[in-house]
Amino acid sequence: xxxxxxxxxxxxxxxxxxxxxxxxxLAEMTNLGLPVPPGFTITTEAxxxxxxxxxxxxxxxxxxxxxxxxxxxxxGKRLGQADDPLLVSVRSGAKFSMPGMMDTVLNIGLSxxxxxxxxxxSGNERFAWDSYRRLLQMFGRTVLGVDGGLFEDALDEAKHAxxxxxxxxLDAGDLEKLVERFKxxxxxxxxxxxxxxxxxxxxxxxxAVFESWNSDRARLYRRQERIPGDLATAVNVCSMVFGxxxxxxxxxxxxxxxxxxxAQGVYGDYLQNAQGEDVVAGIRxxxxxxxxxxxxxxxxxxxxxxxxTLENHYRDLCDIEFTIERGKLWMLQTRVGKRTAAAxxxxxxxLVDQGLIxxxxxxxxxxGAQLAQLMFPRFAEERPGQGExxxxxxxxxxxxxxxxxxxxxxxxxxxxxxxxxxGEKVIxxxxxxxxxxxxxxxxxxxxxxxxxxxxxxxxxxxxxxxKTCVCGAEELExxxxxxxxxxxxxxxxxxxxxxxxxGSTGKVYLGxxxxxxxxxxxxxxxxxxxxADEQGGLVQAVHRIMSHADGRRRLRVRANADNADDASRxxxxxxxxxxxxxxxxxxxxxxxxxxxxxxxLADTDDERESALRTLLPLQKDDFVELFQAMDGLPVTVRxxxxxxxxxxxxxxxxxxxxxxxxxxxxxNENDLRLLQAVHRLHExxxxxxxxxVRLGLVIPGLFSMQVRAIAEAAAERRRAGGDPxxxxxxxLVGTVQELEIVREDAExxxxxxxxxxxxxxxxxxxxxxxxxxxxxxxxxxxxxxxxFSFGTNDLTQTVWGFSRDDVEAxxxxxxxxxxxxxxxxxxxIDRDGVGSLVRQxxxxxxxxxxxxxxxxxGEHGGDPDSVxxxxxxxxxxxxxxxxxxxxxxxxxxxxxxxTAGSDSR
Length: 905
Known about the structure:
Elements: E1 5-7, H1 16-31, E2 39-42, H2 44-53, H3 60-75, E3 88-94, E4 104-108, H4 115-122, H5 125-142, H6 148-162, H7 172-190, H8 198-212, H9 216-225, E5 233-239, E6 250-257, E7 264-272, H10 276-281, E8 287-288, H11 292-295, H12 297-314, E9 318-325, E10 328-336, H13 341-353, H14 359-364, H15 368-374, E11 378-379, E12 392-396, E13 398-401, E14 404-410, H16 413-421, E15 426-430, H17 438-443, E16 446-449, H18 457-465, E17 468-471, E18 477-479, E19 484-486, E20 492-494, E21 498-502, E22 507-510, E23 515-516, H19 519-525, H20 538-552, E24 556-560, H21 564-572, E25 578-582, H22 590-601, H23 605-629, E26 634-638, H24 651-663, H25 669-681, H26 693-698, H27 702-719, E27 725-730, H28 736-757, E28 764-769, H29 772-776, H30 778-781, E29 787-790, H31 792-800, H32 804-810, H33 812-817, H34 834-848, E30 853-856, H35 864-872, E31 877-880, H36 885-897
Parallel strand pairs: 14-15, 15-16, 16-17, 24-25, 24-31, 25-26, 26-27, 27-28, 28-29, 29-30, 30-31
Antiparallel strand pairs: 1-2, 2-5, 3-4, 3-5, 6-7, 6-9, 7-8, 9-10, 11-23, 12-22, 13-17, 14-21, 18-19, 19-20, 21-22
Helix pairs in contact: 4-5, 5-7, 6-7, 13-20, 15-36, 20-36, 21-23, 22-23, 23-27, 24-25, 27-28, 35-36
């Protein structure tokens, strides 16, 4: 029979799959000899059985009873014992941290029979009734499903009756009355009394934690963070220690480094006379952890020593929860801490310098999504230029998660989601957030709260998601019912008013504040030196890790670029060539569009050739500029791909124009011909119609003109002393015969240009693999292709049978919500479907032509997860938009080292 329960003395930090992160780390701290309250962990395997079958696995109850008995012997008292009760917490703990997304219940074991015993043993009647009140509130909401607002309202009424706004002003008598009120709420809402049997309390709480794995908010968080849904949660049953016993007690959260910036020092929050949930919920404003030194120096010094021990042991930033019970320090949790993107890069290089990790591990600990965050703009400094007005700062809170966010103020999650789906940018404003706000936090550009600190729910979740967040802006009076907040000087900001929040400084502004490029972008652009100590060494840290990634990666990174400006930017960002130049973009603009219209309307060979002759020098000049910008690097030019009707006026607009002209008796012959051409070229499904290689086969001379322009531009650059390296790519090939015909024509043109210019031209001819048939017959196609470039955008559409423009707007949201997709297949490669075809085509192509060069030029080329897949299947390069090149470089380096290092999810 499998083992379902482990004592804290039995596990270790490497058993996260079985014990969850919290249980594994509690065991690890126990092994290190740190002060951890005794307890035990029910495994994720038990949770899986419960979720699959609806009942606890056989033998679990007996195992729990045995471990509870051992815990009672260790503590010298029994669960819920009337004269001296053992109380326990029941807490969730999945493999990956999901802050606040699953359930926790404290003070299990308290009852009408044992509350007096707790008062007698603690010598503090108020504490006993406050603990019972907390149990009823948490158990009622979490386990029995009672609306938490009913308890909050009752608590507010009790405080109002006392004439106070502070929980601490309620005395034992007030709290005893509140307990009766809470029991009445439970009875009226559930039809049953609050359970008085301690073991029943514990068993029900364990089941509630199991079931919370599949709560809506937990599912949503997993989708957002790409955490697998089949991991399940462990349950930790831990003997209670109390931070709410008086002024010599308290609870706090600490970080071994600043999770916002990565700076070394004392970071965290502490709350006297409180339990842990008070800190994380942000309901009461905390004091900085450094103040603990003056409140309780012995505990502070011990905590500092433990923090150093844990950071050196885990070799990473650690996030720690602790409680002080009457001057004794207890460790309740540690984990590798969530951090901002800037902190991730700084901490990784700091740990290298300290000799705790090597550069490979540093590279593993950062990722492309974090780098992309660092490239977003930031707010301009508060120094207006001439004639400019300074930003209107209305509050200054705690810088909880960096970034610059601008949006309309909204005061609940429902509105945030609704407005964002309508295209509005919003800032979610709350007194404090709770796990039910998750969907609104995801939808918002940023989060602003008037309560809580750096370790509050809002701060921790925002940092994990990379969302801008300002917490604890105490100057603001937030009224969620009236949907507004008031500033310290009496101004009122209503829902829908524009505000700006700076998560790097904690400043809040009215209106829209202008933004400037981030220092990381300035570094990639070459306008900021790599050694610049901008933003506390951030640029240096990025430079070190990027340099190491470049040295370790096998995949080369190219750019999707269609003009010299984009090519130059891509080169500055580290591109090693162009993987996709879309020649159709060269036909935009009024003059060129007219020549394309002439080509489409040509009735005779002479008219068509005249139009092509006019377009040839325009194309050639474009290629000369492009080859000059990318001198010495490969440039893959895709011949014309889109349907011709895209170059013609809109059918509705043209029809109106013709009808109005006829009404005026002012017939325009060209418009009439254009309208006829639009009707002639109209297709029901243009994506699968006359485009790509089919255009080249149906319109004589079109592809030949483009090949000639490429060849003449290359010859011109070579004569000028340049080193052009063009490659010609034929799009949308479905059968080798199509490619052979176009290739034969192209080779003739290349030979003619070489003979005419006297410049030898070695220009590779290849194809895009973007149709399932092309992937399946890749072995045949490789006979006529010197390279493949996977067009994963169209390949995804054709494999799935999706029209991207239609499906993303119509049902993708429903598919994501139902879990059919973890992420859109247009964002991250579908490994099982599209990815399988890519792998199959790569293997078949190289079996035919061993030296076949393989790349990808769809949007997936800049997606972090997809880059790892392309590394695995042996592609030579990825190509993406210029802005995503640094991300692709970083991820290509990470794919090459793939260590099983620290994971801060």
